[in-house]
Amino acid sequence: MKVRIVKSILWFIVGAAAVVAIARFYRGLGASTAMTDTTPWGLWIGFDVLCGVALAAGGFVIAATVYVFRREKYHAIVRPAVLTAFLGYAAVVGGLLFDLGLPWNIWHAMIYWQPHSALFEVAWCVMLYLTVLALEFSPVVLEKSPFHKLYKFMKAITLPLVILGIMLSTLHQSSLGTLFLIMPFRLNPLWYSPFLPVLFFISAVSLGLAMVCVESLLSSWLYDRETERPLLSGLAKAAVWVLGLYLILRLGDLAGRGQLGLAFDGSWESILFLGEIALSAVIPMILFALPRSRNSLAGVGFGAVCVVLGIVLNRLAVGGIATVTATGSTYLPSLMEVTISAGVVSAAALAFLFFVENFNVYGAPLRKVDAVGDLPEEDPVTGTRLAAPWSPAWRQYSLAFVVAVSLTFALLPDAVLEGAQPLPVPVEGPRLTYALKSPAEESGAPAMFALYDEARQSVPERSSVVDVLLLDADRDGRMVFFPHEAHKATLGGEASSAHGGEESCALCHHMNRPLDRATSCYLCHSDMFSMADTFDHDLHVDKMGGNDACIECHTDPGEVKSRTTAVACLECHKAMAVEGSFIKATDSPVLDLAPGYMDALHGLCVDCHEDRVKNHNAHPALARCETCHREMDPKEFKKLAPHVEDETAPDKK
Amino acid sequence: MNDQMAILTDVTKCIGCEECVHACKSTYALPADRPWRWQKDVTDLSATRWTTIINKPGGVHVRKQCRHCAEPACASVCPVGALTKTPEGAVVYDGAKCMGCRYCMMACPYGIPRYTWLEPIPYVRKCVMCHEKIQKGELEQPACTKACPTDATIYGPRVELLAEARKRIAAEPKKYIDRIWGEKEVGGTNVLYIAGIDLGFLGWTPDLGNESLPAKTWPALRAVPAVFVGVGVAMSAASWVIGRRMKIAAAQAAAAPAESAEAPAIDEPTQEEPKGEADSK
Q: Are residues B143 and B66 in the same domain?
């Protein structure tokens, strides 16, 4: 029953991860992860790769103990250790495929030779070691197969394989530390060390020992199996030495670099560091050194869990947490990243249970609770079997999987369904204020404007005070004085016929949006970057007389009724874009992202003034940036024209 | 590296007009900058903005772009050689080789490379000094330096630009801090700055030192073949010696049937591995 519950949970997680996996590849890393340009490595590298490889170190440690150092009594745990290592590395590669932006290019690391890259070396070692592990484990599968010669051959080359495995493991366990040698500026000095490769290797050995204990205890609990208590005590005793060496090197390295003081300066990094050291080395060393706790399952189990958590914390710190201060960017893995990581681990665990139940991993195959049940009787007439030939356990797993798939689909965030969307930006509408207008020169130079403060300024001779609009929608303090009245006068005004009568407003203002009141852009595009769907289908249906009117726009009944086959808006709304309008239609006139405020206004002001300079040689200064953009003290600016919310809530303090 | 081409930016001459930014964007047809989850500040470098202007108090404008290091960390860590340092000086990117590990983004001491996070098929983006277009003859110099209306950023052989920078500092020592940023930093860069303010904010830490970053990894990587062979030999030897000892012990035990020897604890093997590692490093 225990096994069934655990397996159902694992299948559930795998089901959720399967949906997220599709989403990740469909919408990309931006929509599914929390990674940014300043934290380009997240949970998938920190946990799946760095921790995954270290957690699988038990394979080479135990293989070395048994085959090289001939400690035959540990033979009983070689197979599970090698199996864990193999599945662990398979999970690393699987996890990596999610993290890589272009995973189908992963083989490039094999053909483009880059010996000065630590990652290149890691890639080769992991690939080779995964192969070696598969070969090391192959006798377990082959002994049940009819290929006896192959089995004998694989058995015979075990020792060379084990030694090759140790060589490769030594290299890449340490090289994962080498990866970070090139980022001394990112990594906090409590974690950055020129000896990172050595520290990574030694901690991996101790983690390998601890992980073998954890896994042995877990499988005994799961299958009510006798625990290999004396073996685990032996491993714990060995771990004391390795952990001691790790502790001495880690602290000695810090002291040697004169950074030991940092560990006690009370910063959050120092607390993390002390916690990590306590978990990964101090507590387990005490537990493993005392014979009483070492010989008890609780002592070994608790100590081993401490080592696992502590060293996982170390890898997560090096992989990301310890870089937060330097880069100034925080990162919290997204739920989707967590789901994928959990799914990869769960899949590996399911594979582990499969091998344990079907092959001689722990001596004989462990008790199978979800064996295929008796096949139901054939129907005498049709010859078909009426019930699925599945055991109840498999039905339960399928249910867990399917429920997880549907739940995850239901809960997927919008960013995944629609793709990542730009963030809304708070904007500020144009505000009316008074400005001093300089007298126009005879040379035709444009009038200059300056903010006018009645209390402090007097109006100079020949100057006048006029209304201007202050434009600073993105609130960056660089605002533009826009003499709206002057533009209205020049372009024709509301009643003028110069540009087609009332439609002259439409030269600059959208006139086409349903419910639009010729307002400024910000009133329509209140978040500036949202979908500017200017077409309201329901409104048209209502106005034109319900379903009978479809044909008015979708003129060809043979065509699919879609935006692309419908009559263009301009065919009916002649005034939608007036002749000579400065508003540029985008490629898709109906449905598109509205241009950002800056693009919209630049498009209006700059394009028009550049055109006037070119064709009328009028006001060349107005086509230049500094004519409009003026730096201003934001405080002064706010005093003159406070933001809307500041105005409405002045007493809030 | 002194015959390589470089860019010199004189921060005191920059008026912050962003013509360089727009020239870059139009040369590479980069779409509009938008705020995304990973891009809170649209005026910072992004996949659509390969160079930008950072406005500092006092009307100081600093152009930020790839520094095109002499010994680029990004190119040295790339496991597939998608980033390479050209003999002409630029550090360029080949998307066809890239596998998207983003190690370059982690390794860059200036935090320059950006990722097209929005795309399901993403690539790294950064300034490439218009290398390809100059090689093809489409451009004589990078679009940005050509566009600069005040000649605040200029293009030329590195050695000449260094001389020019020194000349300017010597001519107006009060205007400039007596330092050419990029002359020696992280082994020297091909984008140089002179300024009246400290430009330490362009890197992850104010002082990046003069040692090139690949030099920090190389001692460990150089040891790889030795460690590999060393561990192999040590393990084979240990296996052979222990196997032989056990055989002799078994023979003796058979000759004189005696008490079974208690196997020593497991400390020995696990202790030896780290030692072997440390020795061979």
A: yes
- Pair B269, B134 in one domain: no
Structure token pair of residue A14: 């795998």
Q: What is the dihedral of CA B166, B169, B173, B178, to 10 degrees?
A: -70
Contact call for residues B195 and B168 (beta carbons, < 8 A) = no
* CA-based nearest residue in chain A for residue B123: A101
Tokens of A625: 């940036």
Give 3-state DSSP helix, strand, coil % of chain B, rounded to 5.
40, 15, 45
Residue A624: band (very low, low, confident or very high) from pLDDT cuts 50, 70, 90: low
Q: What pLDDT is stored for residue B155 in this prediction?
A: 94
Tokens representing A24 are 């990740």
Domain that holds residue B269: 223-280
Enumerate residues 6+ apart whose C-beta is below 8 A from B103.
A117, A119, A179, B77, B78, B79
Nearest CA in chain A to B237: A68
- Inter-chain touch B269–A65, beta carbons under 8 Å: yes
Place of tokens 């079907």: A358
How far is Cα A90 from Cα A75, in angstroms, rounded to an integer? 23
One domain, residues A342 and A442: no
Last residue of a domain, one of A356, A373, A390: A373
CATH number of the domain where residue A122 is located: 1.20.1630.10
Domain of A316, in residue numbers = 2-373
Chain B CB within 8 Å of residue A327 CB = yes
Structural contact between residues A498 and A492, judged by C-beta atoms closer than 8 angstroms: yes
| Lowest-confidence pick of A180-184, A394-398, B276-280 | B276-280
Instruction: At A309, list the tokens.
Output: 């958590």
How many independent structural domains does chain B possess? Answer: 2
Tell me: do B156 and B178 sit in the same domain: yes
Q: Which one-letter amino acid corresponds to residue A639? A: K
> Taking 50 as the threshold, does the pLDDT of residue A250 lie above it?
yes
Whole-angstrom distance, CA of residue A207 vs CA of residue A551: 72
**Residues on chain A touching B73 (C-beta within 8 angstroms):** 182
ipTM, two decimals: 0.85
Banded model confidence at residue A230, pLDDT cuts 50, 70, 90: confident
- Counting the structural domains of chain A, the total is 2
Residues B23 and B118 in one domain: yes
A&B contacts, CB < 8 Å: 267
Least confident of A205-219, A493-507, B227-241: A493-507
Question: Of A326, A355, A373, which residue is a domain's last?
Answer: A373
State the angle between helix axes of A335-358 and A2-27 in degrees (0 to 180), rounded to the nearest 10: 140
Q: Which long-range contacts (CB under 8 A, 24 or more apart) does A617-623 make?
A: A618/A444, A619/A444, A619/A445, A619/A446, A621/A445, A621/A446, A622/A446
Residue A359 phi/psi, 5-degree rounding, is: -130, 170
Residues A368 and A470 in one domain: no
Interface contact A40, partner B, CB < 8 A: yes
